[in-house]
Amino acid sequence: MLWRMINSDPDAVRGQKLSGGLMRRVGGYARHYRAMLVGFLATIVAEALLGLAPPLLFRTILDDALPQHDLTLLGRLSAAVVGAAVLKAALGVMERSLSARVGEGLIFDLRTQLFDHVQRLPIGFFTRTQTGALVTRLNNDVIGAQRAFTGTLGTVVSNGITLVATLIAMAALDWRLTTLAVLLLPLFLVPAKRVGRRLASISRAGMDLNAAMNNQMTERFGVAGALLVKTYGSYESEHREFANRAAGVRDIGVRSAMFTQTFMTILGLVGAVGTAAVYYFGGRSVVSGSLSAGTLVALAAFVVQIYNPLTMLTNARVDVMTAFVSFERVFEVLDTPNGVADNPNAADLPRPRGLVELDSVSFRYPVTGDTVASLEGGYAPERAGDRDVLSEITATLRPGELVALVGPSGAGKSTLVSLVMRLYDPTAGSIRIDGQDIRTLTGESVRRGIGLVAQDPHLFHTTVGDNLRYANPTATDAQLRDACRAAQCLEVIERLPDGFDTVVGERGYRLSGGEKQRLAIARMLLKDPAIVILDEATSHLDSENEYLVQQALATALHGRTSLVIAHRLSTITAADQILVLDEGRLVERGTHSDLLGAGGLYSELYRTLLGSGDDTADPAPALSEGP
Fold this sequence. Notes:
10 strands
């Protein structure tokens, strides 16, 4: 009944979604630690019961040992007090050990599950999600959720057992004073009805402000963000924006601290009134001879053991609400649907030969559902467009063939290669590799057979060797050198201060654009895929770097099925097949000479580029020129 009274705020419960389903889901994480949790709870119960011993021992000292001048009994009772304290301390150490193992284990489980789920989400999730806010979920919110199992669970059990056991002990000593103490309990419960809702609201606001602040730091402290701030921004405006967010976090922290302290102070005053009442009325009974002094002292000590646990229980309710806010935020990410999830019966694609078939492929970006609104920085969520991004694309890429994708900006070229890599699934039609619909295959095995060289290749903040081995962790030093030699970047690496052990910096900013491109080609060669996708790999390079990259690509593409998005059309003039896209539709196909003679969109694009001078002096060899 008491616990129901403490938790009888239906609005707060409904507002924070403390549903049975959520409770069962949270409890599911405890099953892995059932044995330790049982030991943890048993230790807490033993500590709570052991806390009853000192007041009863002091009562015996005052009522028996001292009046009878029994020094032997006094010594034994004093030793018992010390023994109880030592035993309670030992139990406390055991409790802390079990608590830490359960708590840290839970953090590990939540973080690894969250990390694994997030990295498997569609690429669209990452294009709309703030990185700093997402990292906050993996750190702060996971730790907040963990508190429910260790701090809050321990508090509720320990103080609940202490409260019940103490009331029973008090009633056995004097039922009248026990009744008086119980009559003051509602004064503790009334404030608890408001504090849970208020502090849970403050807690959620504080989490959101922290996430916004962390996101700003994540974006600005990256090399690209720092460069943008230095070239376009203002230190003063950045400082002002950050200070405003930090001030919000500060103010929320002050409000939470003051609200909690005021609440605890009021409860402390009520406890002092209860203790004073017991001493006053109990003292009158001692004077009248109906109650012993030792019993009064024990009752007064027990009163503290009633009000202190009750204070902690009312505060534990706040902790429970806060912990469940954290669980909600973690589950919000874990429940994000994966629109490109593998079929339960999906098979692995063996090493492909390189046959790629596009059969009436259409695609429309899905309605928002694979993202979390609270991770988008408060912006309105995207909705699906009213038309297909790609419509009825049919084409065949034969093994070893070089196929080029051309078309105006926004024609759907990058979207099409994303579908081939199964970063999205087609809305209609199918994509087959070696005759197998890729939706019946695991996405990981599909991408294992595909190598990508992007327009702006990403390198991790680690060594050159580690970045290369990301594609093939078992690659030997000799294989690394062979791949880099073929990619025209071995001399560049050998000139670095520590060679392959040189740290490239965040996103590889210690290397030039051409050097990063050639390193990405070497990484692709180490992967040794049957299918290669080039996403405008040379569009932003100067002539010298483009020539070196094109030489590397000529070697890399030899004997592989290649799908190339080209900005400079003269680099793909010798392609086996050119697919021309416009507004998501395949409008032309053929060889360079055929398409020029047809006088269509390709011819127009090519002659426009020649007229602008973009391709008049292109020194790069055609991509189809093998070794």
